[in-house]
Amino acid sequence: MYVLTPTITPDNSYWYQGTADALYQNLDFLKQCHEPYVIIASGDAIYKLDYNKVLEYHVSKHADVTIVCTDCMDDDISRFGVLKVNDEGRIEEFEEKPMVSTNNLISTGIYVVRRRQLIEMLEKSGQEERHDFVKDILIRYKNLKRIYGYKIDTYWRNISTVESYYQTNMDFLKPEIRDYFFRQYPGISTKIEDLPPAKFNAGSKVKNSLVSSGCIV
Fold this sequence. Notes:
It is a single chain. By secondary structure, the protein is of the alpha+beta class. 28% of the residues lie in helices and 20% in strands. α1 packs across α4.
């Protein structure tokens, strides 16, 4: 694992100004790699996904970019990029965070891109001081590149707001959700900290709850 932190120089006092800018600032790393494809994944969502299947789909479609998408289960669709795909799976329309939309297919913020193709698009957007991956690359190249959607129908939730983070925690109180993430293959292993167990004092009442280590109830 390589941790690529933002670089502050006399010529650049900015941190990452968007996904495209974060990738652009680490362009040398991309150029030194030898893998033919790059998977870009957001860090504010809860899901399980076999990236190999997305990559196989990407190759079979001869796509330039593949966007993992899903049906919106959130009341506020204005938080997401909304897609419209044709029968072949190719994306015909892409609206970034519309106030209202007749479509409910949304981008999960997970993309597969051919590495050399990505470098080319990043260099062009960087020269024009464009920093947003969705607006300045995906939407801009929508009719110029072969962009396809890979739809998933399993659990996916964005947790970028306090409300969505809370609601996702409430989802994990449902036995079927816990079973899907922790008992069905492939399982998810989390890093365990050396904390004392939860303590339940006399008179406490707990029902259908997930209680973290170190808590006193």
